[in-house]
Structures are given as C-alpha cells and as structure tokens.
Amino acid sequence: MTGKAPSVFLVIHPSRGQIDEKLSIIVKHLTPKQEITLHALTCSDDGDYWEAFGHYVSDVTGLINVDTDASLGGTYDGLEPMGLLWSMKPVPGSRTGLRLRKTDVSTPTVVHISVYRGHMDLGFKEETALACVVVERSYMAPGVRRVEITELGVTGTLFLPPGPGPFPALLDLWGGGGGLVEYRSALLASHGFASLALEYMAPRPSEGTTSHVGYTYFEAAFTVLKRHPQVFGDRIAILGLSFGTSVGLKMAVYSSVIQLRCLVCVSGSHVQPVEGSLTDVFAEFNKNVDKTRFDEENRVIWRDLLLPIPSDPSKKVDVGKLQCPVLLIVGEDDQNWPARESAEDMKRMMETAGNSHLLTTLSYPGTGHLIEPPYSPHIRASNFKAPGAKQKIVVLWGGDTAPHSYAQEHSWMETLGFLEEHLYRCASVTTQSQL
Asked: Secondary structure of 16-64 in the HEC alphabet?
C-alpha cells in the first residue's frame, strides 16, 4: 500500500517577534536532494514591494535548515540564516532610489516567506508556491507606549517600555534628512530604554520657515526627558546618526544643561564650527560644495566636504573635554561623511587629553553610512531631499551588502550592551564641562 507524499512543510520561528530577533527557517517533506528557492516578500508603508531569495538543496532526508545549510545563489549566498531579510531589494520594475523604512511603528512589518520548486530568480508571481508562511516583525514590543511630545516647544515622540518605570532614557537624533523618524526609538523602548525620537530639522510651525532650531532646543528636549516621571533623570544618553552625531558631540562637550551618562555616535564627525549654530554647520558644508564628487551612475558623494580634518581647534568639537563614555560606530566605506578619518582624529585628540579610556570605536570594513538596526536591507544609494531643498537627489551611502549587514547586527548588539552598562549598571558618571 502506498500513501500520498506529505505536503512540503515550512516552519518559521518566531512567526511574530521583534524586528531584531533572528528567525529559524526549516523546510520539511522535500524529496532528497531537491532544489528549491526560499523567497521573502514585503510591502513597505509607502506601497513598494521588496524581495529576497536564496537557492537551496535538501539533504538526503528531504530537509533544509537555513541555520546550517548554505544558499547556493540568489540575493545572498553562503551560510546566512538572516539573508532573506537583509538582502532585500525592490522588486523588478520598482521606482528608483528607494529606501525601506517603517513609518508606522504601531503596525508590524509583514513578510511572506515562500518555498518554490527549482532555483528561480524571476517570475515568482506567476508560480504557485509549495508552501508559504506569513511572518510579523515589530519595532514595538507588547506594552511599549507611544507618547507625542510638544512640551517646552519640543516636537517628538517618546517611547516608554512596558511597566511603571522609571527607565533610563535616550535622545534619539537622526540626520540631515529631517522629519520625525520613530522606528529606532520604538525598538530601543522594546529593550527597556525610554527613547525620545526628536524632530529638529523640519520647519518650525511658529516660524513658517526652514531655519534650523538652536542648541537650546536640544537642551529643552533633555529637560523634557529629565523631568518625565517615568525616566531616571540622571541616566540619560544621546544616540546620534550622521548629523545627529554632530549635535550629540557638541551638546556633550559644551552644554551646561545636558549631562549625559554616555553617548553613541553612528556615522558622524566632530568637525564643525565650535562657536556656530546648526545653520553655520550647513554653511560650512556649502563652502566646500566644490569638493562634491559623483560616481559612474551620477550619484552624489559628499564625504570630502569635511576633509581634510582641520587642525584649527575652532573648527571641531574639543572631544578631549568629553567626560562621559563614547561609542563610535564607523563604516569604513562611508561615502557620505568622513567617519573613519574623524574617528581617527578623535582618538588622537582624546589620547592627548588623557581621556581616551572613555572611547570605544567599532570600525567595520565594507560598511557604508546608513548603519541601521539589524536585518534591515542594506541601502547603498537612495533618494535624498534635505529640508528646504526643491528636489531630490540620489546619494551614494556606500557599503557592500554582506559586510554591511554583519556590521548592523554586531553594532546593534554592542550598542545595547554599551547602553545597559552605562545606563543601568553604572553607579555614577562625572557630568559634562560647562560652556
């Protein structure tokens, strides 16, 4: 008596979880040595479809385990358990210059993971999958609360972890693209840190202009956090990306109001006019606009605008005066900011001043500017529109997909460990020097 062969079975765990959780993916009930394609598909909040796929061959028992079996081709290859997520690209025919970012953190990212017969590169819509599982990936863990902030003239969103608190806290500063970017703060709150995603590059409603806020704005944001009843007022950090790093470093060294336990700087620089405002920093960029380069696809490269690193102390933050621990995260193929050269100069300055024991640098080969939370797709270039600009341009951020993705995973875990050490476990830290 012969029975019908069991249907192909796709097992994914967890099917619902946080965006930075690893997935276990197993395919069962294949025939021995069967060729299949694992395919992942998601639709962004902007309505664009992104996909990734890997080619696999089952073992003699008809099983594939992505944790232990290598992809033989596709958008990634080799032993890459999370390749189906970090190697995602826009589907053929999509708009150009896309970047996959979550704009509504209250809803999960939905990923359809499917098994197809044979090794495929195209035509997934036209084929019937052997099996499919829908996976939900969230930035907000159950119980995380989202609170809109308008206090003291500050515009932002505060994410609070589950429970009564109080919690250690962060100011979360994104870069020169402006807008209110919430997903990193939501994820930080999912790990136990109150996090204020701060809007600071957009036009101020009271002014109706595109002029940038002053440094007192960041001091007001710090004060909002410090006074919040569910925040430890003496356990606050800044996490800055790109231009947010410039702000974080200047506030940490020169502000008499902002007193930080620690500082995380991603893909940024200390080079800026010390006596200037945010507007003056951009004026410095504009003075060097003739250093702008373009690659073979006419994508903008801005990394040279702050090079060479100046020796004039009035042109860079005096990091020798830093009194809190600093974590620098550097992509060595950053084509947007001179992050590597800046990190090297910061190290020299801190060694000379005798405070280099406060500095930890993570430097990653093959890694570009946009170092995101883990398993986010690597974006080598994308559309960019600065606040007040009339049109978009395509900016080259740099990096190669596999090493950049490894850097995202490693640096995120190191960041969480650094914040836990200095915001939860550290008993006391000397406050910053005054202006």
From this structure: EEECCCCCEEEEECCCCCCEEEEEEEEECCCCCEEEEEEEEECCCCCCE
Region 278-284 average pLDDT? 75
Domains 9-138 and 145-425 share a fold: no
Choose, from 39, 369, 404, 422, the residue flagged as catalytic: 369
Q: Among 58, 138, 242, 405, which one carries the catalytic annotation?
A: 242
Query: CA dihedral in degrees (176, 177, 179, 180; nearest 10)?
Result: -70
Average pLDDT score over residue span 409-422: 98
Cα–chain-centroid distance for residue 385?
A: 18
- The CATH number of 9-138 is 2.60.40.2240
Which architecture does CATH list for 145-425?
Answer: 3-Layer(aba) Sandwich (3.40)
- Contact criterion met (CB below 8 Å) for 419 and 168: yes
Determine contact, residues 337/367, Cβ cutoff 8 Å. Answer: no
Would you call 369 a catalytic residue per the annotation? yes
Q: What is the DSSP string of 132-174?
A: EEEEEEESS-TT-EEEEE-GGG--EEEEE-SSS--EEEEEEE-
Q: What is the pLDDT of residues 104-162, one digit of tens each?
A: 999 999 999 999 999 999 999 999 999 999 999 999 999 999 999 999 999 999 999 99
Which one from 20, 69, 333, 334 is the annotated catalytic residue?
334
How many percent of the chain have pLDDT more than 90? 85
Q: Which two tokens stand for residue 32?
A: 């021995």
Residue with tokens 């356990």: 235
Residue 129 and residue 131: Cα distance in Å, rounded? Answer: 5
Tokens representing 302 are 């801005």
Q: Do residues 271 and 340 make contact, with C-beta atoms less than 8 angstroms apart?
A: no
| DSSP helix/strand/coil, 215 | helix
Reference 245, options 187, 191, 319; nearest CA is 319
What's this model's pTM, rounded to 2 decimal places? Answer: 0.92
Task: Mark whether 119 is an active-site residue.
Answer: no
Cα gap 216→287, rounded to integer Å: 25
> If pLDDT is split at 50, 70 and 90, which confidence band does 4 have?
low
- Are 412 and 420 a contacting pair, CB within 8 Å? no
- Give domain limits for the chain: 9-138, 145-425
